Amino acid sequence: MPKKSKNLKKNFVYALGRRKSASARVKLYKKSFRSGNIKENSEDLVNGQVIGRYFPGEAMRKIWLRPFELTDTLNKYFVMIKVVGGGKMGQLEAVVHGVSKALSVANPEKFKRVLKKAGLLTRDPRIRERRKVGTGGKARRKKQSPKR
């Protein structure tokens, strides 16, 4: 017998961002929404850590704040992100892609045009090239020819 699904109102916007081999699942909450663990002054979280600790440094901070600065929503939303795969920069760009998609779903008529123009809604298709057989361990390197 199937379980009866409760008709719960979603209080967040969900989006998936990807870059290289990293993928970020983003939940975007309005700051005014209150629940047991989300308060007005909550900080954005990545894998349970504060985003400033997970992505340290001023350069990374500028990158992950870009979607909020472009849409003028710097302290209006709270983000919970689960990111897996890739390195730190790939994960950071996956987070930016996911947050941009979530913002465009939250308010499409206001944010979609701005984010699209900045190129934040476009998935970057470049991925690591696989290594080929007979190339000496690298993707494009040619094997050294014998000298004698």
Automatic annotation (TrEMBL):
Signal peptide: none
Organism: Candidatus Woesebacteria bacterium RIFCSPLOWO2_01_FULL_39_21
Organismal lineage: Bacteria, Candidatus Woeseibacteriota
Region (Disordered): 125-148
Chain intervals with Basic residues compositional bias: 128-148
SUPFAM superfamilies (UniProt xref): Ribosomal protein S5 domain 2-like (SSF54211)
GO BP field: translation
Family: Belongs to the universal ribosomal protein uS9 family.
GO molecular function: RNA binding; structural constituent of ribosome
Record keywords: Ribonucleoprotein, Ribosomal protein
Alphabetized InterPro entries for the sequence: Ribosomal_Su5_D2-typ_SF, Ribosomal_uS9, Ribosomal_uS9_CS, Ribsml_uS5_D2-typ_fold_subgr
Protein name per UniProt: 30S ribosomal protein S9
The keyword Ribosomal protein belongs to this UniProt entry's keyword annotation: yes
One term under GO cellular component: cytosolic small ribosomal subunit
Pfam families: Ribosomal_S9
